[in-house]
User: Fold these one by one.
Assistant:
Number 1:
Amino acid sequence: MTEETMLALDGVTLAFGPKLIQRDISLEVRRGSIFAIMGGSGCGKSTLLKSMIGLLRPTTGRFSVQGEDYWAATPARRDVINHRFGVLFQSGALWSSMTLGENVALPMQMLTQLAPDTIRRMVELKLGFVGLSEAIDLMPSEISGGMRKRAGLARALSLDPDILFFDEPSAGLDPITSARLDDLILNLRDGLGATIVIVSHELPSLFRIADAGIFLDARSKTPIAHGSPAQLRDHCTDPQVHAFMTREREQGDNNP
Ligand SMILES: Nc1ncnc2c1ncn2[C@@H]1O[C@H](COP(=O)(O)OP(=O)(O)OP(=O)(O)O)[C@@H](O)[C@H]1O
């Protein structure tokens, strides 16, 4: 892992019209790391993720990608930056009327000049990476929730992004399927050198995969802790953070 900063927020405030969601957010995501956005329900995790994909403009502060001020860039330049982003939404967000292969091919067909043969080979590669080679001609309704998540991941990888965003990737998955998805996320970091931002409530997954993170507080509407999940668990003295990060131990589970 190098020390280069890939994504940075500096003094960012996020709001929907007059409704303040979070203020004073400063963070850095290092290249080739997995960064977790943590906090209780409704504190603004997905909203923060949205702002880091360029879907929500901060009301104050700066969002930069490899040092480049995202919102100061021209729309054309922002498009170029956006092509570096791959996003996996909670549901997998597949088109229900298309096969998995067609779903993964769609971004390439819409946004590149690649020949159909090349696209087909790329689709096979992406589906192979997530272990779904055999499912290329199946419809989303014919596969399980875990498979849909993996297909969504294959589609997120369609344009070879180097920065990936995951919103609750393990939500609704059983622990084994969830651990398999974690393996894939770790492969993306370790095998492809991807930079990854993840919103998750799943403590086993967070402890296993995240290198760094931020903890948002709903009441004060500002971040109250920075660090990896394990650092927050072991060293953070804030009672709310401590309670959140040790929830699992109280349930009798043992994590590193
Ligand atoms: N488009 C919107 N317009 C107005 N308010 C919104 C919008 N999207 C989200 N909110 C509000 O922003 C707040 C934060 O929502 P967000 O989904 O970011 O929280 P979260 O931490 O991801 O929650 P959860 O863990 O429950 O998914 C909530 O009060 C939500 O109602």
Number 2:
Amino acid sequence: MPEVHVAVAVIVREGRILIARRPDHVHQGGLLEFPGGKVEPGETVQQALVREIAEETGLEVPEASLAPVIGIRHDYGDKRVFLDVWRTSGAQGEAHGREGQPIDWLLPECLEDSAFPAANRPIIRAIRLPRVMPVTGAMSSVSEGLSLFAGALDAEAHPLVVLRAPHLPASDYRDLASGALSAAGSCGVGVIVHGSPDVFSGTPGAAGLHLPWREAEMLEARPVPSEAWFGVSCHDSSEVAHAVAIGADYVTLGPVARTRSHPGVAGMGWSEFSDIVAWAPIPVYGLGGLGPDDVADAIEAGGQGIAGISFWWPAN
Ligand SMILES: Nc1nc2c([nH]c(=O)n2[C@@H]2O[C@H](COP(=O)(O)OP(=O)(O)OP(=O)(O)O)[C@@H](O)[C@H]2O)c(=O)[nH]1
């Protein structure tokens, strides 16, 4: 069965996303969708997006305003699709369902997986996840960790953070997590705890769980409920494949560049990163020697953005 190349648009206006309802009689009919459609022969994906958005919604989108979000290959059994997902916040005009379809502007947290075709779950994850995922760095004690954490919190720049402290004993980590959760909660930042599945169950209120590879490799299924974030640290394509198989929402992949912590290890570079991202059906963060200045390169390589320590953590 040939694969259908589908251009999919995440159109953002004032923090809301434009969605439409698919007519009952078409493939995946009755479900919600992001505007889009097949890329016609001879068209680039950007040209297809501009055309489909105009045809379906009346909005005009400058091609230069389009940035890649994620690419997803999915086999529905009766149809194989490659969803080539792009985002724009530069659409002009008033949106209306020009093909008679109901449309609406929804907040990212109101996009429910079950209302969309199955292939859309990673798109919704990619929309909700930030471009920059900060990870906590060195701390010698719980109290030092909490004071560094409180000083580094910045809800606007970093709405979601990974609380990593592999050198603290388990009971100290619990204290750290409970203090960090209350500091972060009061300014609206989500905390993804790090370690093993019991760390998540022992930390009520955590936004999710991030596992080092040595923990993830022992799992055969997703260890947290679907509302919680589940991330895995990966270093090559087979690790990413396993993370996908156990239901990860996102992975970090690296090192991309040489890092201060591992100066002897050469990074994989954006080229190898992008080869892996090309087939990974979930958001992938570049990790290792990267900061916010590298987000554009990560997106260009097909990634979600970057994750790391040194750009935000005061002690390294
Ligand atoms: N537009 C769009 N298509 C999606 C989404 N998710 C998803 O799985 N698809 C699938 O991608 C394919 C897009 O086909 P389409 O029907 O919108 O495209 P089209 O208008 O060019 O083609 P048509 O001639 O078959 O109607 C369908 O199989 C659809 O189920 C989504 O969010 N938006």
